[in-house]
Amino acid sequence: MSKIEQTLSIIKPDAVERKLENEIKEIFKNKGFSILKEKKIQIEKNEAEKFYKVHETKPFYNDLCSYLSSGPIVVMVLEKNNAVLENRELMGATNPEDAQDGTIRKKYGISIDKNSVHGSDSVENAKIEIDFFFKD
Ligand code: CMP
């Protein structure tokens, strides 16, 4: 069964730096995602630490938070049937080396850190992540 969902997508600093944001947004739109909200921002490291708190015990946490706060990012609320899963499929594997042809990370990702996009991993986390960036 499919149902309309919202998910949070981030175009990460490596992709914004390479001026890929419009190309990546077109990919989402062509796959039927509506971009309900979007903004281009740069966050502080302490905000990145809050956003990625779920990873705080991981060895890559510090580098990950430094990286996400290292340059402008584009945060978006995407909407579609089954948006969470469909976005994850469209992004591809976390490590671009493992991502399948046709996925965003295969096409644009440089490394497991500079993997161009982030997407929520569950409906529950999507709500938390959307609130994090777009709470009025
Ligand atoms: P993202 O989907 O934004 O969620 C957490 C990020 O941590 C992930 O993408 C990767 O860019 C980054 N990362 C770095 N090293 C690893 C790792 N070994 N396993 C998973 N994620 C990693």
Tell me about this structure:
This protein has about 140 residues and is α+β, with helices and mostly antiparallel strands. It has a four-stranded antiparallel β-sheet with strand order 2-3-1-4, sandwiched between helices. Helix 3 (about 45-50) crosses helix 4. The chain has helices at about 15, 20-30, 45-50, 60-70, 85-90, 105-110, 125-135, and strands spanning about 5-10, 35-40, 75-80, 115-120. It has one domain (about 5-135): Alpha-Beta Plaits (2-Layer Sandwich). Adenosine-3',5'-cyclic-monophosphate binds next to loops.
Could you tell me the mean pLDDT?
97
> What is the CATH class designation?
Alpha Beta
Helix content: 40-55%
Largest sheet: 4 strands, antiparallel
Enter the CATH topology name. Answer: Alpha-Beta Plaits
Number of helices: 7
Strand arrangement within the widest β-sheet reads 2-3-1-4
The number of E-state strands comes to: 4
Strand-pairing-aware structural class = alpha+beta
State the end-to-end CA separation: 32 Å
Bound molecules: adenosine-3',5'-cyclic-monophosphate
CATH superfamily: Nucleoside diphosphate kinase-like domain
Radius of gyration: 14 Å
* Helix-strand pattern: EHHEHHEHHEH
Bin the strand percentage. Answer: 15-25%
State the shape. globular
**Architecture, according to CATH?**
2-Layer Sandwich
| Uncertain regions spanning at least 5 consecutive residues | none
